[in-house]
Structures
1.
Amino acid sequence: MPQMKTSADLRVHNQTRLLRAVHDADQPLTRASAARVLGIGRNTIAALVGELETAGLLHEVPAATTGRGRPTTLLLPHPRGPVAFAADIREDSWTLAQIELGGRLTGLETGEHDRTPAVFDDIRRATRRHATDRLVSLGIALAGPILDGRRLHISHLGWDEVDLYEQIGDDWPPTVVVDNDARLAGLAEARRGALRGAGTALHFHIDFDIGGTLLLGGHTQRGAHNIAGEFGHMPLTGGSGLRCMCGVQGCWSLDVGTNALLRRFGREPGYGAGRQLGREILARAEAGEAEAGRAVDDNAVALGRGLGALANALDPEAITLSGLGVELIRLRRDLIEHACAEGLMEFRRAQPPRILAGTVGEAGPLRGAAETAFDAVLSAGWLRGRI
Amino acid sequence: MPQMKTSADLRVHNQTRLLRAVHDADQPLTRASAARVLGIGRNTIAALVGELETAGLLHEVPAATTGRGRPTTLLLPHPRGPVAFAADIREDSWTLAQIELGGRLTGLETGEHDRTPAVFDDIRRATRRHATDRLVSLGIALAGPILDGRRLHISHLGWDEVDLYEQIGDDWPPTVVVDNDARLAGLAEARRGALRGAGTALHFHIDFDIGGTLLLGGHTQRGAHNIAGEFGHMPLTGGSGLRCMCGVQGCWSLDVGTNALLRRFGREPGYGAGRQLGREILARAEAGEAEAGRAVDDNAVALGRGLGALANALDPEAITLSGLGVELIRLRRDLIEHACAEGLMEFRRAQPPRILAGTVGEAGPLRGAAETAFDAVLSAGWLRGRI
DNA sequence: GCGATTTTGTTCTTGGTGAGAACTTAACGG
DNA sequence: CCGTTAAGTTCTCACCAAGAACAAAATCGC
């Protein structure tokens, strides 16, 4: 809704609504159901669909008849319609995937990288290998804040202030969108996971430390400099008085996440080392080993305490977790919820936020990157140019 | 933009945009400037204005000519156009005011109350005294969270769970909107004050304790149960290990605000007592008394520390303060900013959020209530019914 | 098996919307 | 006093969605 003034805008607007409905629907929409969903006449939907079909965006296929009435058609993505690519850059590997209208995600390629910004070249080359003229945009998920949308800070790769614009040349797809992985994982939950339909929600990705995003009506919150979401760097649990790598004292991240687990066992957390040991600690806790169990307990309590505090401030209806958070919920749900309740103001304890494991899984950042990248297609501006 | 489908919607939509532009403008818009602002043709604006004039919403007055060209007209609120009332319920007094298109606020009446929900009767009677057929809606500002929009918790009045629906009968104006005062003060700053035009911003009202709101694109954030904004009840400074009246340990509010000042002087904070002493402490600090000065120092440092933490999470471009916060900025700006920087992640310290005193002043909650109440008029739904 | 029913697609008319061009009006300036 | 400038007015036009009436294609009941 950038602006909407003329009757020509109206047509594009309704077509965008239609494409969005098709994209977000669980099952393929029929032509008639689309009309009902949009609250629009059957005659009008015919016009919309017609133009979108000739524009190569929608493809109509006869629908299996169910019950009475004239058979209708399914609205499917056009086989030669636009697609977006999505890349997820993890610790030492990356994945490239493709998404099309309707949300179908297809893996394209996976590779390893050398933990330097040369990974952008890898992805550029992979993109070029798989690109067709259907490719519209590329979304990239990165495990760190991206100041002003261009300056990357990825502590566990040792990237201090990598300029994104220097990494991205001119020979990329039309639009490149780069965003933080925790934020994108939250977006994935909001679009395709446990946070569907939630008005106000929080998502946290717990890895070595903890990052997340506030979700409002299915939109992630970016902040003024595109670095909103560093919830892990609030002193929500005191942080045992330690100083955090981020430069602040007492961060929540010092008590929650794999780094906190490692510290319990004398391993001073570094740049991403120790993931294996972290998994081991979890396994030993599950097997009943006392010291490991206590470490996990502390992690869960600190997590819950922080969630309660954040719930006071932001009043989410649900909170989802990914990464280590999924394991913590599985092993210590009661501890988390109890600690959360303790952090909640008394009058809110009757209606605590639901704390859920994310359902999108490890592909969260990739899925989120795909969704943001495909958002370019689902905009009035792009559509105007296409039709 | 609830939904927008037909060409009739388009007309109402543009008329709403026009009214909003008139309402939000600093100086009265001329007909021609409105056309430019909306990016719409002169002929179209004529049609819009014409209908709005006959609907009794706008009133055209010849504009003073400046320079060449055919003289135009000013778009002013219609003298018999719709107005909203706004009420601010403070500790032991209340104010009723009227707002009209363009934002002009006119005080109507002030009264005292007995700190019981009987104050709603006072306001109902005052509203009836001043009501004309121009009255469309009433906004009420209250100093506490309003769970699910109906259950009031105002600690310093001793209201534990007052049901708003029982207080509001049927003989009120068409629409009654009730909201938290800190949130409304923030809205006032966003609409008419220091936060105009800010995308992501925070506002805090510091009184006995501290409450606030996250502002996104000029909209306050309400949360899932309408109780977002209790930032004072996060453990951002440790709270000296004390337990807060809210039921949680270590709240930020224990270290920031008048209650924190009082506790320094041995006064256990109760339900709103001690405001006078709080003012005295500030005055003594300003006069150079050491102990009072240290109390104010601590308050400022705790404030800054919390703001830094919140900035990490939410990345606001600006933070405004009202209430005691204005004094703290005046007396201890450096301390606040320094403490804030210490709480900011290192890589953000080059671009700290601006920390500003609110410019709307004490009328903030009233102004905010007026704006929300008047929002009813500036909606497509209401307009559709009126024309 | 055939007609009634139900649901959907199609066609045509209609009211409404803003854009654009051309023209008019009303000020100022030299 | 006439040219310039800016704004209001009028008229045509392309376009859009709604609504009504009708046609098409399936199921259901007898």
2.
Amino acid sequence: MTEHPNLMRQAITASDRVLFEIQRAIVEGSIPAGSKISEPEFARRFNVSRAPLREALARLERCHLIERTPNAGVRVVTLTPEGLISLYQIREELEGLACRLAATQMPQAEIAELAALLDQHLSTQRVREGESYYQEAGDLDFHYRVILGSKNPYLINMLCDELYYLVRMYRVQMGMNGPRVSRAFDEHKAILNAIANRDGELADLLMRRHISASRHNIEQQLQAERT
Amino acid sequence: MTEHPNLMRQAITASDRVLFEIQRAIVEGSIPAGSKISEPEFARRFNVSRAPLREALARLERCHLIERTPNAGVRVVTLTPEGLISLYQIREELEGLACRLAATQMPQAEIAELAALLDQHLSTQRVREGESYYQEAGDLDFHYRVILGSKNPYLINMLCDELYYLVRMYRVQMGMNGPRVSRAFDEHKAILNAIANRDGELADLLMRRHISASRHNIEQQLQAERT
DNA sequence: ATCTTCAAATCTGTCGACACCTGTCGATCC
DNA sequence: GGATCGACAGGTGTCGACAGATTTGAAGAT
């Protein structure tokens, strides 16, 4: 229930370490989507036995990054337009809920921290205009904080532990874009304002629109690649 | 991604079998909430080695039925009012979404099957009025079918594999009640009608109300026990 | 009597090995 | 020539055992 990547992400056990490495490799595409994973091979590659590797694989399955078929084997997921839509449908609902809850559950101090994070994003964004840093880390970190602010453990687990890496995988491997960055920042700011004003309904609505826009963006990107 | 309990639930491997047994025992309370699970002890009890047991435990953690603390051990979750509220908040959103999707994604044949299921529930309900059969299996099976009808694999996984058993655990261990049964049946029928009419918005709204009412019901039950 | 300290006991994480299953390739038969 | 069948290789599921960590409990000190 408590992993909270990007923040405290120290591997305490061997299976943790392997999990983080494989997770990262899959998200970044070093391990190609759709490829098969052989347990003995990966166990050798990461210098562990099959036991911790299998535990890591079990957790990767939880993140929807791999798929197991009994007695057959493990495959990295394949990214599809349908999968992207299904994923974002859920994000809209759950992150909308997260905003509504955060508007009542986040203490002032946490809201202030989030505002500071946004300011920091702004400066980083201006410096490295066009780079993918913002979209890859910053955008997701904002969402991350809002979700944590909901204080709903199941919601946090689902979004931050189970769906987070798959979302990143889609964004990284679909290739990230430029022009939406500044607009996304404004949308984040509006959402934060709604939360600060304790207006859960508005924050919910804005977040749904924000995610919907992001989905349309990726869908366009995807359709452009298809030509 | 494809377990689909209650329907095709045949244990293909040893860890499957152990998973089902422990899952059932936890939901029914045979293994008390909050109790610690010793891996060697349970391995002996179910006549398996620790390897398949650990895999079963990993999957139980996915269902939020147990909690692991590194290097410490495994404990069955404890049921709390806060946990119940958090759980139902998510159910409202996700099952609402499921209804909206089902209204456009369910083929006519599947809707007809669901209608038949409801009729069957009606007869069973009239025969064994007051028994808990309806609430425990029938009600959840209706929800189950609607979720499957959404055709969204992540949604199906989350609700049917990850949250389903925890919901059942709350309902079973909080003790199930009588008077809401017939009202719940009418609500199911209304939801089905909305789906059959391809009115996703209405189905969404009705499902949210239905789950909200169910939550209030359990909360009352819980508050009544506290006196 | 209470708190501290330490050691035994237990448990978790990890390892290497074995049985059964799966998928493949080649041989045989129609 | 195509299809069926059977051996082979590789892999997954499972087992028993060991090392490090943790909790328990008792002994000792204050």
3.
Amino acid sequence: MPKVGMEPIRRKALIDATIAEIGEAGSLDVTVTQIAKRAGMSSGLAHHYFGSKEQIFLAAMRHILRSYGDHVRGELAKVSQPKDRLETIIAASFHPLNFTDEAISAWLNFYVYARTTPDAKRLLEVYGRRLHSNLMSNLIQLLSRRRAEHVAQGLAAMIDGFYIRHALQENAPIRSEVIAITQEYLRQNLAHPKQ
Amino acid sequence: MPKVGMEPIRRKALIDATIAEIGEAGSLDVTVTQIAKRAGMSSGLAHHYFGSKEQIFLAAMRHILRSYGDHVRGELAKVSQPKDRLETIIAASFHPLNFTDEAISAWLNFYVYARTTPDAKRLLEVYGRRLHSNLMSNLIQLLSRRRAEHVAQGLAAMIDGFYIRHALQENAPIRSEVIAITQEYLRQNLAHPKQ
Amino acid sequence: MPKVGMEPIRRKALIDATIAEIGEAGSLDVTVTQIAKRAGMSSGLAHHYFGSKEQIFLAAMRHILRSYGDHVRGELAKVSQPKDRLETIIAASFHPLNFTDEAISAWLNFYVYARTTPDAKRLLEVYGRRLHSNLMSNLIQLLSRRRAEHVAQGLAAMIDGFYIRHALQENAPIRSEVIAITQEYLRQNLAHPKQ
Amino acid sequence: MPKVGMEPIRRKALIDATIAEIGEAGSLDVTVTQIAKRAGMSSGLAHHYFGSKEQIFLAAMRHILRSYGDHVRGELAKVSQPKDRLETIIAASFHPLNFTDEAISAWLNFYVYARTTPDAKRLLEVYGRRLHSNLMSNLIQLLSRRRAEHVAQGLAAMIDGFYIRHALQENAPIRSEVIAITQEYLRQNLAHPKQ
DNA sequence: AATGAATGAGCCTTCATTCAT
DNA sequence: AATGAATGAAGGCTCATTCAT
């Protein structure tokens, strides 16, 4: 039952299925056949579109990162004050859109996947650098370079830390608490810039 | 030529080899044969001692957690003031003993492994609870319950966050910076308990 | 935009592409998609014209055999003496037109292909019989039947032998040597018919 | 049902099965599973011993070449006159031991296999060089260098030619004829060295 | 105690072929 | 006439696990 112009639809379906399947399994040990079946097609077609399992994973990872990036960018467009922008980044990072169990689980696995796969590592680095520069460009207006650097690193660690804990620690705080704790960390630093 | 009393030696060798293999590979995709070879024995013997690959992994995970736990406990025995004890926990978490590339890599993989494997999840929860109670029992003496809870969660997230970033982010801060940032976070909260 | 009267052009393109692909790959392990792409069309169209991969191969094989046969026939039309005709057959067999690396490589693979595929076997037998009868009809005029038979077999073996060696042995003699050696074999037999 | 010291037995069984399977199929399109089954073991074990299908093929090719080489060497040890030695080489090449349908078929396929596989090409070149030097070292004592070279090439081509024809041409001469024709070619050249 | 022989299930990937458009 | 979407079977290879020795 071949149809024309199916490529983007198929690719999208495969990416969604990949994230769902990984999220559900809790690991990258999902088969192409599983993914393809969930996406409503044969494994052969999945390979036809992506070439290999690795490419499917990378596309899914790219999708998650792009979604997150788009969301942050969209939110940042609404505010201009450095402090507001920093709070926006934090809020966006934990926004329900990016903070679904499924996405976090897949995300975490891709995060670790980067240890093995150079292309995944590259994607992760882009994400890391972008978050860092987003934080720094605002912090630098409020703090000394050294303090800004520290707070940027601290915030990034806290964000990643809450992600991993949310996915894996039973007693991790809920989303609202997570946001509160992270925002507090930020405000404290802005309130006492000399400390 | 089989020898008697080899069991503990063999088990230790296998655990060390497992951590080393996982650390090197950057993932759990290591074969029992690889592990056994590195430990200087046949794969059959590895199964003889542990029963299954999963048990080998769990033993290695337990080993890492116990090492960390023992180290923290040892350090805590030397100090009694809540503030000192909190700083000790942070310092121990990033102590070179626990912060080797290899151990971090293996640790991270076990962390994710817990999503799939109930026994691993249980081990991780023990670690989580112990860290939390260690932090709380000291924080509660210095802060309100609610603030203590927040700071405990924030510290735990930061610790885990720095671990994962250290393993995976090219531009993660070095150990000394990591400690400085985390200790700052703690001190700030202790200095302004009402905030 | 489909065009009319394309069939012969498409078929020719596919046959040429098949020979080129096989020659390049050095084996029959070429995909229909590769062949079709080289011929400037989709794999679907290749099937449309030939029905199956086997038919494509057979058509290519037929093409090589027909080219060779046409060439020999054309050259034979120019000479009438048995000895000249025999030399003509040898010369034609190693003529640059039939002795390109690509054609030899494809030819060899088809030769072996005949072991598996009845239709290919039939084609090969036609070639074999034709070469044999071409040689015999001339040799019989110069030698006894038994000797003629021997020389015909010897020449055929030498021709095939040089083909396969040319394709596969690094130190095989060059074309001019090949011709010289084969012609020598012929002349020796004609010079000493009783031997 | 594992037993000790099985390796050489298994390897031998696999090599024999490979030659038989290829001979029967008439092509290299045989599966590892087929080969393993014929050799009385699982496909996994075949991989355990050889690592890959390619290695299995190469081992089988090596086996055929070594058998042939050993046989020739054994026969050559019995005669010392150049002419006798040359006739011995021819006779050995067509000896029933090396001239079974099965071995010829496998041999031919490996011959073509060499176009694709560098290691197979190397093996083939060794065979080619050895045959050439065997022929040359004797011919050079009876003929001029140039003539010796020609006859060596002619003989090699005829031998290969008869092999391929025997495998693939219905009307190829029988073994005794093949030997007669090749020996005649040799004697003719030795009888009229100036020609 | 220790080995490594042996199995078999499972996965990724390829590809000829079909078919809606 | 032409495309390329789609399938599904098949194959090479890996690996945890078992077991005879």
4.
Amino acid sequence: MENGVHLNTVLLNGVHYTCGMPRPESTAAYARNSRDDVIEAALGILDQQGLPDLTMRHLAATLGIQPSGLYWHFPNKQALLAAVSDRIIAGARSVDTTGRSWQQRVQAEATALRDALLAFKDGAEVVSSTLALGLGAEGLHRRLTGAIDAGGFDEETSELAAATMVHFIVGHAFHEQQRIQADSLGAVAHAHTLDREDPAEATDRPGAFDFGITLLIAGLERQGTHVPADPASAGSQ
Amino acid sequence: MENGVHLNTVLLNGVHYTCGMPRPESTAAYARNSRDDVIEAALGILDQQGLPDLTMRHLAATLGIQPSGLYWHFPNKQALLAAVSDRIIAGARSVDTTGRSWQQRVQAEATALRDALLAFKDGAEVVSSTLALGLGAEGLHRRLTGAIDAGGFDEETSELAAATMVHFIVGHAFHEQQRIQADSLGAVAHAHTLDREDPAEATDRPGAFDFGITLLIAGLERQGTHVPADPASAGSQ
DNA sequence: ACCTGAACACCGTTCAAGT
DNA sequence: ACCTGAACACCGTTCAAGT
């Protein structure tokens, strides 16, 4: 793959790499990517090839640098994925609040966040791993708590309900994205092998997402503002 | 690692490997594991080392065979993990149904399933990936739909509600397990760096799980038996 | 400030062959 | 029935050094 032409090293040897100068006509021996360039390239690979192909080596090749060069921008791959996650979440469209009930607002926020996860291939999986690890992607929580707060619940209720919704939103999107991929891969292969009774198949009917969110909102409406901590729960022990 | 002593190949050369015979005193040149042995060993590694150490090579070494030997038992690693997932779910304790409301039953089933996920290190992550992929772990769905059905809901409602709960249960357990691990690793390191305001930290207070399940049950109680398909939902388009 | 070059210590999977 | 041996095509990460 190396092109045999001689590099312009003679020119480069005389450069004073005055550090402050931003992108000096890009006459450099290597790519000189910014941290943002790296994230953008990662999002590109993610969307067009998927998470399995988002390797440090592949990403580096896309940027025209060596794999080790990435470690100047990020301490490790997890940190890179956290930055990618934040970008995916930040891409969620903003919701028009004016004149809407808190229920409508929660529905709209949840849908916007789900759409953001679905906008990138394997987006839900990336965000899932990132927020399980406790890195980034707090935008999910923030927007949902904000919407629920409008219902006048106490802070604890809002946060717990938001956390419940986050798990559902991400889990549902993850599941749906995998199903899309499985369908596109095995569409022809399994086309006439359809003796369908798989319970996982029942989940993907349209409206499953809206149903879940509606269920949680209905739960909040019924609970009111009190936190259920009574021993009547048939719970853990 | 190879011990220099001579193998008992002389004895082995005379063997008629009559295929039906089960475990013939185990006088064999190699380990002769059953498929079940492999799953058991995988569960052992998972529980004591965690998912990152559950590699085909490590697993093979534990069983005393070559990595390639595993591919006689399973077509690939995903299939192995699916079998491991099924085992984890099957380990959920059974719930005493007698004289309990459907709400209590749902709570108990959900708790039993969560406990099963938490019983093995990284159990939630393994099950999460498996059921996202659409392989196995349907035990989760089955038990929850069974419990919800007792509330007299129509089949569609039961299944959608169960799917919602599955996402919450797995997501919550995943999150909690990662937090446990992060705490155990960085307990000393971050002990006096605690200027806490992380919203993810607010999630892990005890009762967050019960809250989520209670919220979903309350939602079901309010929804009754009708499926919300009216255009009043502030949903996706 | 941003990257190279080279190495280290790994992966999952295939396949012919052995017993 | 259950596994070996050897190979293929990869991984993430470190670190001294270069410009």
